[in-house]
Design brief:
The complex is a heterodimer of chains A (163) and B (507).
Chain A (H helix, E strand, L loop, with lengths): L10 E2 L3 H23 L9 H28 L1 E4 L3 E7 L3 E7 L3 E7 L2 H5 L2 E8 L6 E7 H18 L5
Antiparallel strand pairs in A: 1-2, 2-3, 3-4, 5-6, 6-7
Helix pairs in contact in A: 1-2
Chain B lengths: L11 H4 L4 E2 L4 H23 L6 H22 L1 E4 L3 E6 L5 E6 L3 E8 L1 H5 L2 E8 L10 E7 H13 L19 E5 L13 H20 L7 H12 L2 H28 L3 E4 L5 E5 L4 E6 L4 E9 H5 L2 E8 L14 E7 H12 L3 H4 L6 H29 L5 H6 L1 H15 L1 E5 L2 E6 L3 E8 L3 E8 L1 H6 L1 E8 L5 E8 H11 L10
Antiparallel strand pairs in B: 1-2, 2-3, 3-4, 5-6, 5-11, 6-7, 8-9, 9-10, 10-11, 12-13, 12-17, 13-14, 15-16, 16-17, 18-19, 19-20
Classes of the chains: A alpha+beta (163), B alpha+beta (507).
């Protein structure tokens, strides 16, 4: 028997999430670069092996900042059907999570400072298992709130203690 | 467990409905326990204030305060059990009332430390499934009469007497509990292979080191150790090393035997007619743990490499409300002491009601999984050796490189063994997964207990068409994974274990 493969979840996250991921990764790389400058003896002379360390850092950062957000944007997807929530996340390591709506315990939305700048919001769906929270990053704020409301309502009507 | 009027032991009925103090014999336990706990502080106070000659007075004052507080604990703690709730009121300055609804109770553990046992007392600790996963919501009744504790446990879990009769029908007091397993003295010979003694050895070593630091008394110059040190001074280095290793191994083995006996003395696994499992064990501190049938999601049989070499295995229950803890003896979830693997499998079959899950052959993960184990093992060892070489160039000791390079020849047999461990199956409504070499874990969880599924795959796994599938559950480790399963097989497996869940997400 040949099984039809699992398709990716139907919905992409907000396109603005790419910029959010870029900015967040940029912050990390600036930290790395600042560290190198601080511990760089004679950085103003731009010579020696430390010069090449800096060049490699910049190249790695550029590659990461260009590739990662696009890649991640194509991977990060979500879908909420009447009976189950299905998410896909990651870029190098990819993860898919499926949980039945009947076993959802809480639905939260949250926003970090950078996410607020881009008008984005995360939705976290938790079950009774500590190993399985489903996180949807980078949704538009209005959509995230509607999704959370919708899921909470369906969870309440499902009843049971979800364990 | 009926009580007639002539029975002198206080019955559970006495505790019901009215506010009731714990046993007055706790007045003898609290001060000893609290003084013991305060001992480091007392010593600290003694030395801190000793320079002006008042150290002993200050210590005495602190000790008196500790004693008064300890005694006040008994006077301020009251217990009431209504048909709906167990209520505990305690606190000297801030009065607190903790109430636990009886239909939420999932675990009732009865523990008696040495002092408790000498005075015929017990500590009852009541847990409600979901909350004690976060360590909160446990209600501890420290100091019930041992008989009363046993009755209370039985009442709370089986609804005998006045509690919960509506929920669980009374099976009648005449039905004896079914004995599933009891300690076989032959199992004790497995103790040295559990390495439990190694921790004891480390603790003793740490203690000796502290003593040396504090007192500057070199333990190598006193007592039998001093004699040994002088003898070895005349011997060759090789002989000295061998003797020291032999001594350490002997100590670890003896400590392991002692630990095994202390923990598992008088071990019994029984099953109540209602399906609740009871575990009783312990030499000095006796413990009684219960696992309700509906909380039992599955069983894990784990084999650390040494234990596996001698054919032994540990058996733990995977149950909601019991978080898997480090060290198999520590949690309330032990189903069997380290025992021969065949016994572990047989007991698991009785507990689950089917021999299938641990008896069925597992589906092997094939050549691609083997390749991945080998590249990961060998690759990891090579990278580690490269890093060691770099560190050596930067200035680390020369012996780092050969030491790390040793991992290269070791990694291959380990990778092969890890591959041999890999397997999964779906038997009698149970998800079965096995993996690991240093610790091989064979886990079985009921499909009903599986909440959802996660698949995780790295770029390398995707190129091989493999994925790591994780069944999430509210019990035990919360997630049980099937490593490097074929992607298509993973889908088929999920579909069989949780019918209908992924149907609508298929292309």
């Amino acid at each position: 028997m040949v099984d039809p493969a699992l398709r990716p979840p139907a919905n992409l996250v907000s396109p603005r999430a790419r910029w959010y991921w870029t900015v967040r990764a940029l912050m990390g790389w600036l930290g790395v670069f600042a560290f190198e400058v601080v511990f760089w003896p004679g950085w103003h002379r731009l010579t020696g092996e430390w010069f090449w360390v800096a060049v490699v850092t910049v190249l790695l950062a550029a590659a990461h900042l260009i590739v990662m957000p696009q890649w991640r944007y194509r991977v990060h997807r979500w879908e909420a059907s009447g009976t189950a929530v299905y998410t896909q996340s990651g870029w190098f390591n990819q993860e898919r999570r499926i949980a039945p709506v009947a076993r959802i315990q809480t639905v939260d939305t949250n926003r970090g400072p950078f996410e607020q700048v881009f008008g984005l919001s995360n939705v976290t769906v938790t079950t009774a298992s500590a190993a399985g929270p489903l996180k949807i990053h980078g949704l538009e704020r209005g959509l995230a709130d509607r999704l959370a409301d919708d899921l909470s309502q369906r969870t309440q009507s499902a009843g049971g203690d979800g364990t | 467990m009926t009580h007639t009027g002539t029975d002198p032991a206080p019955t559970v009925e006495e505790v019901y409905e009215t506010w009731h103090r714990l046993s007055p014999r706790m007045l003898m336990i609290h001060p000893v326990a609290e003084l013991g706990r305060a001992l480091p502080a007392l010593i600290g106070v003694f030395f801190a204030s000793n320079h002006n000659g008042n150290g002993s007075w200050w210590s005495l004052a602190v000790a008196v305060v500790v004693l008064v507080l300890a005694v006040s604990r008994w006077f301020t703690t009251r217990l009431r059990i209504t048909p709906e709730q167990v209520q505990l009121r305690h606190g000297l300055i801030r009065r607190r009332t903790t109430a636990t609804p009886i239909d939420r109770i999932r675990t009732v553990d009865v523990t008696s430390h040495l002092l408790h046992r000498a005075l015929g007392l017990a500590r009852v600790s009541i847990g409600t499934g979901t909350s004690d996963r976060r360590g909160r919501g446990r209600l501890v009744l420290d100091g019930l009469d041992a008989d009363a504790a046993e009755h209370l446990r039985s009442d709370l879990l089986h609804g005998r007497g006045r509690v919960r009769t509506a929920v669980v029908p009374d099976p009648g007091p005449s039905t004896p509990d079914e004995l599933i397993a009891r300690l076989d003295p032959a199992w004790i010979k497995l103790a040295p292979f559990t390495l439990s003694g190694a921790f004891t050895a480390l603790i003793v070593f740490g203690f000796a080191e502290r003593v040396w630091q504090e007192t500057r008394v070199n333990l190598l110059h006193v007592g039998p150790l001093g004699w040994l040190d002088r003898q070895l001074g005349h011997a060759s280095v090789l002989a000295a090393v061998l003797v020291v290793i032999a001594l350490i191994l002997t100590f670890v083995a003896l400590a392991s035997y002692a630990g095994y006996l202390l923990t598992f003395w008088d071990f019994r696994l029984t099953r109540h007619v209602g399906g609740t499992l009871h575990v009783d064990r312990g030499l000095l501190t006796s413990r009684a743990t219960s696992i309700e049938r509906r909380r039992l999601v599955g069983i894990e049989i784990s084999q650390p490499v040494l234990l596996r070499a001698v054919g032994g295995a540990r058996t733990v229950a995977i149950a909601t409300g019991l978080r898997a803890r480090r060290g198999a003896e520590r949690g309330g979830e032990v189903l069997l002491p380290p025992a021969p693997a065949a016994v572990a499998t047989a007991v698991a079959a009785v507990v689950l009601g089917t021999a299938g899950p641990f008896g069925a052959p597992l589906v092997s993960h094939g050549q691609r999984a083997l390749r991945r184990r080998l590249t990961r093992g060998l690759g990891g060892a090579l990278i580690a050796t490269g890093v060691a070489e770099l560190l050596h160039l930067v200035g680390a000791h020369g012996w780092v490189v050969p030491l790390v390079a040793l991992s290269i020849p070791i990694s291959v047999p380990v990778a092969l063994d890890r591959y041999r461990s890999l397997g999964h199956a779906l038997v009698d409504g149970y998800v079965v997964t096995r993996f690991g070499s240093v610790v091989r874990r064979h886990s079985v969880i009921a499909c009903d207990g599986v909440i959802g599924w996660n698949t995780r795959s790295s770029l390398f796994q995707r190129r091989l068409g493999l994925t790591t599938l994780t069944a999430t559950t509210a019990a035990g480790k919360q997630g049980y994974r099937i490593t490097d399963i074929d992607t298509v097989e993973a889908l088929r497996f999920v579909d069989a274990a949780s019918p209908g869940l992924i149907t609508e997400f298929r292309a």
